[in-house]
Amino acid sequence: MSDIPLPAEGPHAHSQDLRVFRGVEAWIFDLDNTLYPAEVDLFSQINRQIADYIARTLNVGEEDAIAQRRAYYQKYGTTLRGLMIEHKIDTDDYLRYVHDIDYSNVKPDPALGKAIEALPGRKYIFTNGDRPHAERTAAALGISHHFEDIFDIVAADLMPKPNRQTYDRFLERTGVSPVRAAMFEDLQRNLEVPHHLGMRTALIVPKGTRDIFRDDWELEGDNAAHVDFVTDDLAGFLNAVNGQLSAM
């Protein structure tokens, strides 16, 4: 193993060599809790909107709605998918409702923007959310102009990650070669298919995430074989990668 240090330290830092990113031509980023830290409170707002939608649509109480949201999310990958399959909901209405949130806590992140800009090749946002939500979030972060495209849940034909066909659809649409790509995610289960396809994979664990915003089942496998790197500082990690690429 190389002695090149990773930005993250402690139990989440894998002893991998950053030189494996040499040759990467496409950089693929999840959106929620990846390009922004979880503590800005977007995803918890979305979760509240989802629970409220379930309560209103299925005529159940708040606790039952929260439990149903979690059950659908765990079983189907997104609550939307569960509601589509089991209740035939209007997907456009659902997506508008759950993303009707306050973005004021999302602040520009020039350090992240600079690090993304320095990466060689194309950059994409690949999200289980919808394009308008991704556009609003990226605009608030000040990083929209660094991305060639956004691949959202609608482009995925409403089939969420981690389903294999969703990644295949992304690759077909973008022309990305998986062996020349890297993917950044906050959920390890969404990195399993990319790893098997040949992508470099990085799990983003923002500071404070474990104790505040995650269920235990979502965090299992931080040290899984399909997770090449783990960091709690995306901008710092990308700067370290850029450092290795510029040293070529």
TrEMBL record:
Q: Membrane-spanning residues where?
A: none
Q: Which domain of life is it from?
A: Bacteria
NCBIfam families in the cross-refs: HAD-SF-IA-v3, Pyr-5-nucltdase
Q: What is this protein called?
A: Pyrimidine 5'-nucleotidase
According to its UniProt entry, this protein's organism is Roseibium aggregatum
